[in-house]
Structures are given as C-alpha cells and as structure tokens.
Automatic annotation (TrEMBL):
CDD domains, alphabetized: AdoMet_MTases (cd02440)
One of the record's GO molecular function terms: S-adenosylmethionine-dependent methyltransferase activity
Pfam family, one: Methyltransf_11
TM region positions: none
Alphabetical list of InterPro entries matching this protein: Methyltransf_11 (IPR013216), SAM-dependent_MTases_sf (IPR029063)
Protein name: Methyltransferase type 11 domain-containing protein
Every Methyltransferase type domain range: 41-137
Annotated source species: Vanilla planifolia
Length: 268
C-alpha cells in the first residue's frame, strides 16, 4: 500500500469531512455473503466502512498502514479490531495480523483500491477468502460530486482537481475517473447482480455541507497534500474566494452534496 495519510491535519479533516457510505450499500453487499462470520476492511482509514460492517458481521478486522488514520477510529466496538499493517504485507503477516487462510467471508475496500498494489492484493484476497462463497467488494466515489444548486461550484471543484493531475500517478487518476471499470477484476459474478462483475452504480453517498466543508474536503485529498509538499498551493485565497462567491449567501448556506458510488463485487 502507498505510504499515505501521515499528516495530522489531513487525517483530522478526513474523519471530519469525508462522507459516510449509505446503509443500502452495506445491506446490498452483505445480502450476497453466504456466511457473516468475519469481514476484512482494507485501507480502513478511520473506519468509514468498518463501523457499519460491525453491525452486520460477527467480527470485523480493519487494517490500514497509517497509524495516524487509525488513531481516529473508535475503540468501543467489541467485535471490531483495528490493526496497523506494514506497507508491504507478507503472506506470514497477512495470516498473523489479519486472518488464517480461507476464513474471511467478505473483503471490502472503500475508496482505497487505487493506492494498493492491485494484483498483489487480489492474490492476498484469494488466500484468505472462504471457499466457496467468499465475497470481495471494492468501491469508490470520484471527483464528480453533485451539489444541490451548485453547478458553478462543481465546475470550480473539477477544475481544481484537474490542476492536481501533475501530482497524481496516471494509473491512479484513470482508476478513479473510471470508477475502477478498467481494473482487471479476477473474480466470478455474484448471483443476483445484474451487472455481473462490471461496476454497479446504483448507490450514492450524501452529506450536507457548507462551502467550508468543500474546501476542507479538498484538503483531505492526497494529491492536494502532495502539491503542498512540493511547494504548490492549489487552494489559493483567490480560489477560495471564487468558491465562496459561487456558493452564494456568503458561503453560509448548507447544501446537499452527493457522491455517486461505483462498486465492483465478485466471489471466489
């Protein structure tokens, strides 16, 4: 996994402003899992996916290579275990820190697959998923958020993220923009999923935000943080003012922001 989220401000903004995923998404995924004993949430961050999974599975292990991210995760959910893993997870570490071979009923990766060594991760997934019937679900939301009555803000937001392209690997950018559609996904289709293993696009994360939330959301982005580290401030005072003006009402109005989700789901 890429070495990310080491900045305290970034992890603080992440847990505060990133959207939570809708219950319908987790219910849909869980409905495809024959057994609900153990789920593994990969690249968990502060637990945006792991927490709702804990109410659907007997046990959840949530892993991330960033101790800063996991420091913001809850510690009072008895069936949820957070683990900081090495950047490169060996097979021995996989079975020691996560789960024994063939014991995981569901693996989830929520808006983090693009930071993984995808072929190596899929091999690890095959080692720990239960056979038959183990399910893997990976999803993301991209840059095309939808703001209620905020088309001009959306245009500025997209332009802002386009300016981060020099600080983002081309492969990562394409994966995100295509909703993981181009990822080689070596798993079988799950019964009852009309799309097969192609992206499922029927779920949306929603959050009510003011313009300060949008600005903070930009600051959570790894590509923005990389630009700052390189001495380039993309979120200048002029850009912030442009966002506030486009938002209207001096930026104080709260609006509904939608984050369309692209899900790929399969089984071993």
């Amino acid at each position: 996994m890429a070495d990310l989220f080491r900045n305290h401000d970034q992890t603080k903004f992440y847990v505060t402003y990133r959207p939570n995923y809708p219950p319908e998404l987790f219910n849909f995924i869980a409905s495809k899992v024959p057994l609900r004993r153990l789920a593994w949430d990969v690249g968990t961050g502060s637990g945006q996916a792991a927490i709702p999974l804990s109410s659907l599975f007997d046990s959840v292990v949530a892993t991330d290579s960033s101790p800063e991210q996991i420091s913001h995760a809850p510690t009072d959910i008895p069936n949820l275990r957070f683990v900081v893993t090495p950047l490169s997870l060996s097979t021995d570490d996989l079975h020691r820190l996560v789960a024994p071979p063939g014991s995981v009923d569901l693996i989830t990766v929520a808006t983090a697959l693009h930071w993984l060594d995808v072929p190596a991760f899929f091999n690890q997934a095959r080692r720990v998923l239960r056979r038959p019937g183990g399910i893997i679900a990976v999803w993301c939301y991209g840059r095309d958020l939808e703001i209620q009555g905020g088309r001009r803000v959306q245009e500025i937001y997209r332009r802002l993220f386009k300016s981060t392209n020099p600080f983002c690997e081309e492969e990562v950018r394409v994966m995100m923009e295509n909703g993981y559609a181009g990822v080689d996904f070596p798993f079988e289709a799950v019964e009852g999923v009309e799309e097969g293993t192609a992206p499922v696009k029927r779920f949306v994360a929603e959050r009510e935000m003011g313009v300060d939330g949008i600005i903070a959301l930009v600051r959570t982005a790894t590509v923005y943080q990389r630009a700052r580290k390189a001495g380039v401030e993309l979120l200048t005072a002029e850009v912030e003012e442009e966002l506030r003006t486009a938002w209207g009402d001096k930026g104080s109005q709260v609006k509904k922001v939608k984050f369309p989700i692209s899900l790929r789901i399969g089984k071993v």
